[in-house]
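Risk register update: the risk of archive-format incompatibility is retired. Evidence:
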Amino acid sequence: MPVRFPWRFPWFPRLHAMGVVMTARIQFTKDAIDKLKCPDDKSDVLVYDLDEKGLAVRVTKAGAKTFFVVRKIGGKVHRVNLGAFDKEKTKLIPLRLKAKQTFAGLEDAIAAEKTKTETELVTLGSAFKGMMSAKSKITAVTVADYEKTYKNYLQKYEDRPLVSISNEDVIAMHYEFSEPLIKSNGKPGARRERSANKAIVLLGSIYRFAIVIHAKQGKRRIDHNPVDIMKTLKLWNKNNRSKIRVNPSELPDLIRECLRIANTQPMRDVPTSFQCVSAAVLFMLFTGVRPGEVSKIKKEYVHHPTRSIIFPERNADNELDTLKNGKEFHLVLNDTAYCQLVYAMKHSDSEYVFSGVQKPRLGESNVRDFLMRIEKKIGKHLPRKILRASFISLAEAADIGAFQIKILCNHDGQGQTVDVTDGYKTAYLNEVRSSATKVESKIYELSGASQKEVCRELLDSLVKLDEKELHSKFVSL
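Archived output:
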């Protein structure tokens, strides 16, 4: 006779009336399991083993029998399939052992599966957003730079879970990002090697953030940074600086065109920024200041007694108007550079020395367009950074020492090529001014230009220098 069980117990009237279903348990033997039948009013039923906790067999209306481990964890019932019952092949002793192990390890297995699921939900996009929210101390400029790099290169992968990005994926991304873009004329541009490095470095930063932020109780959910493969296999593109400068023979035309364009009246009665841009270009040539920093010079930064610019240390209020390293810096000027400041301030109606048309500060495009006008005369491409590169080369030609050049250009350097003794050196402002003046003299020697003309006829009206301050204050790297 098939074994049937009283799923409802009529001898307990109150329970039966409430519809309470009691759990069926039997001693698992092959014969007992084989005789189990599903009640007529059910589609399937679970029968538990009396000997092994959590071990059950599911009996369907069709007669199929399947073993499960059943355990309630966190208010939810979980089932693990142990396979179908076969009277000839099923071995109950090994089955009970497997059930015991499964029951004991089910909680950890579920936790691991939950962690895996949560980890897979950490995508490149969500990790980047989390990192940007957490980095409260980075400047607005850095934030904009990160977001631009992410948008241009990494955003297409933002739905990828971090754990799904492999070493091979990173190598492929780097190769893809390095490829040149096709220009509007159908020709390929230059390889984007520096941009590719920058994008993959950002990807590595996202992983380092995610590894730390998603660790739980000391255990890492994301335990691998695939960007490490770039260093291991030495796959980074070589980041060589462009070897560019204005040829000494080109200096006369460069300076002459700067002055000519500034003095040329526009063909239409419209305002222009030619005077400020002309002064900015000559200022960069005579100081070596970074292209992006010339637009940060506020009128209040100009210290007339020493003819210098004092860039303040970075804080929350001035982060857009400080230098690359965020430190206070005294940019000591030669007379020509100082005259460009005085001239530009006369043509600027904003708080900045160099301003654009109806704009408080000079834009990159203003300088770029101005240099394109000079290119037509010289017949040579003039990127903005060529002025800084030329100043450094001219300083070398003027026999200025390496430390003094770094002081003039505010370039302390990094890496193994740095002279560690630079950390001990200082230079008084009068010494720095002397070096700046030597570079100024070298430019006039090579260009044959008139200092009086380049200085906009302002030399005779300059405020007298404070020699005491020049000899008492010093700068260092």
